[in-house]
Every structure is written in structure tokens, then in C-alpha cells.
Design brief:
Length: about 90
């Protein structure tokens, strides 16, 4: 699932992927869930401002649902734009 949002002169692209990888220090499968892959573009420019960023919940855990991953990625992208580009929160 991929969604694009316009925000303060940027386009925020959030893609949700299922997370079925292997945990960092174990050979057992990691907790199943979803991660958000975020790309941030200046509006009307085809090149992303950053490389794609991958987000899960606090502590590196995946999100429990696709909807949680979508909203978590969107919130993270807005915070990045606000913090790095000096936009005020509304």
C-alpha cells in the first residue's frame, strides 16, 4: 500500500510493507508486522530529498497493522519536514 500526501510544499510518500525479516541477534523470525518506508520530495521535483527512510514503532518493533504503519510513517515524515525545514506545526 502506497499513499502520497502534500504537506507544506513537500510530497510525502508512505509505502507500507510487511516485515517478516530475521531478528538482529537471533535465528528465529522477528515479530511479524508492518513497516513504513518514507520518501520526501520537494513538490514538483522527481528526486527525493533523502534516501528512503524505514520506520517501525518505538524500540524497533514493527507496527501491528497496515493502518498504524501508514499513519506512523506520515507522522514521522511531517516531523522531519517541520524539524529540518523550519515549518511551524499547525
Amino acid at each position: 500500500m502506497t499513499r502520497s500526501y502534500d504537506y507544506e510544499g513537500f510530497t510525502l510518500e508512505v509505502c507500507v510493507q510487511s516485515n517478516v525479516g530475521i531478528g538482529p541477534k537471533q535465528l528465529e523470525p522477528a515479530r511479524r508486522g508492518y513497516v513504513a518506508i518514507v520518501r520526501i520530495f520537494l513538490a514538483a521535483y522527481p528526486v527525493a530529498v533523502f534516501s528512503p527512510l524505514r520506520f517501525g514503532e518505538a524500540g524497533g518493533r514493527p507496527f501491528a497493522t497496515e493502518a498504524d504503519a501508514l499513519m506512523g510513517g506520515f507522522s514521522a515524515a511531517r516531523r522531519i519536514v517541520d524539524d529540518l525545514f523550519g515549518h511551524d506545526r499547525h
